[in-house]
Hints:
Largest sheet: 6 strands, mixed
Mean pLDDT: 87
Strand content: 5-15%
Radius of gyration: 36 Å
Bound molecules: adenosine-5'-diphosphate, magnesium ion
Distance between the termini: 61 Å
Strand order of the largest sheet: 6-7-8-3-9-10
CATH class of the largest domain: Alpha Beta
Amino acid sequence: MKKILLEILKKIFWQIAIIIICIAINMYFLTFPSKILGKIIDLLYDVNKNREIIYNYIFLLIITALIALVLRITWKYFMARTTRTLEKGLKDKLFEHFLKIKLTSIQDIKNGEIMSYFVKDIGEIRGLMYKILSGGTRIFFIFIIATYTMKNINTALTIATMCPIIITTYIIIILKKYVEESFKKSQKYFTNLSEYVQESTDAIRTTKAYAGETNQLKKFMKKNKILKKSNISVDLYSTLISTSINICFGFCYGITVIYGSKLVLNTTITLGDFVAFIGYIDLFYTPIYILPNIISKFKRAQISYYRLENVFKLEEETLEIDTSKNNKKISGDILIKNLSFNYPGNIDRVLDDISVEIKEGQTLGIIGTIGSGKTTLMNLLLRLYPVQDGKIFIGNQDINEIELSNLRKNISYITQDNFLFSTTIKENITLFKEYFTDTEILESTEKSIFLDEVKSMKNGLYTIIGERGIDLSGGQKQRVVISRAFLNKSNIIIFDDTFSALDNRTEKSLLANIKNLVKGKTCIIISNRISDVKDADKIVVFDKGKIVEEGTHKTLLKNKGLYNKFYTEQASMQEINILN
Ligand SMILES: Nc1ncnc2c1ncn2[C@@H]1O[C@H](COP(=O)(O)OP(=O)(O)O)[C@@H](O)[C@H]1O
Ligand SMILES: [Mg+2]
């Protein structure tokens, strides 16, 4: 995290330097109006004699105001640029990191939490940088420049005025602590509420189906009420702070007026100096207001910094982001030897002593009960979870010795999840890889029996799916995903429960196309339907993490085991017509 921050700060070093210089000059110019006003007042005793000098001062006032304006615009501009550059840099790095984190580590992070890293934590760090650059430097220069200018008028008066300012700053820092605590609480309640909203929207179908709206609403209202209460206390503390600041300034003006007028009367200072002095007090208003903010911002950013640091510490897979079409081909021979597995942190054995061999060019069918570990086995083939050495070999090479990005590029895994991004059909098929032509993509949709439907959509391949576009049916979604298999020229193709939402006719044509596609390649078809796996060169039957049967359609039927049972069940469900 430190390295990343330093890297970004290095890039924007000169912009930061410009900001600080502009602010310093800007702050110096801020003392001019009061100073010039004081001078003019002292010259007013003989307007006729001093007319020209007074005009010159007024001219100077306008010029400095204009320069100050230009400086202010300049530093504000650079401020926006630098802090947004920092924010963008952090977001890029964080997202890149998220894509690379090992699945075992990432699955413990909640969805809502991921967004808060991007929005809240990075926002806090940007906010702190903004506050330090704009507020911190301003406070620093105002204190130096204004006290120096004031001291030049009268030291005793300066000390008398500065006392309440320093005392109030101290009081406010303490008060701010309480604001912080109540703010933290309200943040917690807010997160709690947003997570609840997120969860409720995710589960809206279930809620409706079980008529759970009233309960959901009651829970929401309770959480919202707690949030309201804690927000009120935040507001109260904030009001207390602003009131204290106002009281402090009342004191400052009081002291200056009483003590200052005495000094004017005994001619220690001039009337002009006195007026200028009162003007300088105003300059402290902003610093007192922002100093406690910076301190609390610092604390909040510190928490965010540690949170981000912990995320950045999560172990990454050694994986290069895929940018080329060319991959080192790996052979399609797969050998799995006595593989057992349980998910990290779970004692339940999901795979138990699995051994299976598939030669390049063969198709393996996997059939089995739900939750028997079929998908888990595929996850291990993709090394989404750690695999023990000596358990899985691809092309005679231990899977752990194959470069991860190369391994995954060589395997087309068409999942059962059908995860589609809310973007165009094209990007969903290519998974954002830009090197495929539209013709290639259309060809793949033709093979996945999806072309006619794509053509009938108004924007064809560029139709947007999901929230902002059309909603696809289950079968259509599956065919978008299946098109990926026809586009990627991988040596190993896995279909994991991919045909469940297709009607019989589409499925039959698709299976024929898949047969063509996988000629000479290794194919694994996972399904609950006999019709999908019956033509495979080898079929294994999974039950409770074990392979309980292995053979071809014919031999398995003769076995009278689980496979035969599936067959009989499905045949009786009138699927017999497609089995033959
Ligand atoms: N990420 C995970 N963490 C812990 N357990 C899991 C995870 N994914 C799946 N499981 C469990 O592993 C078992 C096998 O799941 P899975 O491989 O998806 O079965 P199948 O694909 O055969 O239906 C199930 O009991 C499931 O609850
Ligand atoms: Mg599965």
